[in-house]
Amino acid sequence: MSTPDLTTAPQAIDPTFENVWDEIVWRGLVHVSTDQEALRALLAGDPITYYCGFDPTAPSLHLGHLVQLLLLRRLQLAGHRPLGLVGGSTGLIGDPRPTAERTLNTRETVAEWVDRLRGQVERYLSFEGDNAARMVNNLDWTAPLSAIDFLREIGKHYRVGTMLKKDAVAARLNSDAGISYTEFSYQILQGLDFLELYRQYDCRLQTGGSDQWGNLTSGTDLIHRVEGVSVHAIGTPLITNSDGTKFGKSEGNAIWIDAELTSPYAFYQFWLSTADADVIERLKVFTFLTRAEIEEYAELVATEPFRRAAQKRLALEVVATVHGIEATAAVIAASEALFGQGDLTALDPATLRSALDELPHATVAPGTPVVDALVATGLVSSLSEARRAIAQGGVSLDGERVADDTATVQGTLPGGVSVLRRGKKTLAGVFLS
C-alpha cells in the first residue's frame, strides 16, 4: 500500500456488514446500551429518528464530541434521521462534573456559544433528502415551562433514591464540594429533552458518552413511565490511550475542532503522533475507512511500523473531515517542508505561522545575527555554542546552510518569518518585530 495522497475515504457505511449496528460494534462505539438485540433490529428496520445533545459549556466542541458527531453521521448514512441538539437550557446549568461545581456562564455567553456549536454540528450532517437532519435547542421547550409545571409534570416521575445513585451525583456527594440542587436537577432536564423529542419527532434513540449513562437512562426511564413505551440509548466508550493517559489532550490542553482554538497544523500533528498501539482503534472510530482498508493498515503497523502509514492516513482523514481538504493539503505541505521534504517559500503564510507557533520560537528585530536568534529560540544555550554549531555546518536558516556566524535573520519566508534548524530535526521559528 503506497503512502496515501489527498484522496480521502468516502463517507459511507461499509457494505460488508449486515447492519449498521454490527459496524458500530466492530468500530468499538458501543460501550453500554439498552437491549442490544432490540437495538440491532431497530437499526435494521425502517428509518428512525435519533439524537445527541451538545451543551455550550465552551465556545467549541472537542475531540470527545467528535466521536458523537461521527456516530450521528454513520447512523444517518444508514438511512436514519438525526436530530442535533444544542443545549441552550442545559448549558445554563451544566452537567455535574465529578469533582467540583461548574461556574455558571451568563445567558449572553451561552447564547453565543449555542450559535457557535450549532454551526459546528451542522457541518457533520446532511440537511437534504428523506432523512435530512434537523437542529433543535432545548431552550425552546424549557423556557416557557414554569417551575410549578416542571415539578408537577416532570419532577413527580423521579425518585430521589435513584437520582442519588447516578455516578456523577454519587461522586460529588462523596466529595468535599458536595452538589447543588441546580446540578442535581440536570438529569431531569436531560430526561425532559428525550421525552420532548419523542413527542415531537417520535425520537427513539439517544447517543452519548458512557460517562453520561445516568443522564441517558434518565430519558429512557421517563419516557417509559410517562408514555409506556421503550426507547433506547447507546453510550460510547471514553477514548483512552494504551499507556493510560487521557486521549484528546496535548500538553494538558484540550484539542478543539475550532481552527481558531487548535490550529489545523497542531490538529494534524496530534493525530500524526498517535502511538502504534492506538492507531488502528483510532482509524475505526474517527475515519470512514472500510474494515478491509483498516485491516491492511493493521498489517503495515505490524510489519513496517517505521513508515507510520497508518498514522499518516489517520491524520489525513480526520483533518480533512474537520477542516476540509484545502486546509489539510496546506498543513501536510508545511509539515513536509519544515522537515526538509518541500519548499518553505511556497507555503501558505497563515499555515506556516501557525506551524511555527507549535515550535520553540522567538521574536527578534530584522537583521538580528543568527547566533543571537539561536540563543533566543533555545536551540543553543550560549553564543559560543551557537558559533560552534555554525562552524560545524549544523545550522540552516530558511532551508539554506548558514556558512558563517555573521549571517543575519531577515524573515524571507512567506509572512515575514524565518525557520532555524540545528541538526536534522531540531527546529525553531523566528518572528520579526
UniProtKB/TrEMBL annotation:
Catalytic activity annotated for this protein? Answer: tRNA(Tyr) + L-tyrosine + ATP = L-tyrosyl-tRNA(Tyr) + AMP + diphosphate + H(+)
What SUPFAM superfamilies is this protein classified in? Alpha-L RNA-binding motif (SSF55174), Nucleotidylyl transferase (SSF52374)
Q: What is its EC number?
A: 6.1.1.1
Q: Which UniProt keywords apply?
A: Aminoacyl-tRNA synthetase, ATP-binding, Cytoplasm, Ligase, Nucleotide-binding, Protein biosynthesis, RNA-binding
Entries under InterPro entries matching the protein = aa-tRNA-synth_I_CS (IPR001412), aa-tRNA-synth_Ic (IPR002305), Rossmann-like_a/b/a_fold (IPR014729), S4_RNA-bd_sf (IPR036986), SYY-like_C (IPR054608), Tyr-tRNA-ligase (IPR002307), Tyr-tRNA-ligase_bac-type (IPR024088), Tyr-tRNA-ligase_bac_1 (IPR024107)
Spell out the molecular function terms from Gene Ontology: tyrosine-tRNA ligase activity
Q: Which residues form the Tyrosine--tRNA ligase SYY-like C-terminal domain?
A: 354-426
Q: Which Gene3D superfamilies match?
A: HUPs, RNA-binding S4 domain, Tyrosyl-Transfer RNA Synthetase
Q: What does this protein do?
A: Catalyzes the attachment of tyrosine to tRNA(Tyr) in a two-step reaction: tyrosine is first activated by ATP to form Tyr-AMP and then transferred to the acceptor end of tRNA(Tyr).
NCBIfam families (UniProt xref) = tyrS
Q: What is this protein called?
A: Tyrosine--tRNA ligase
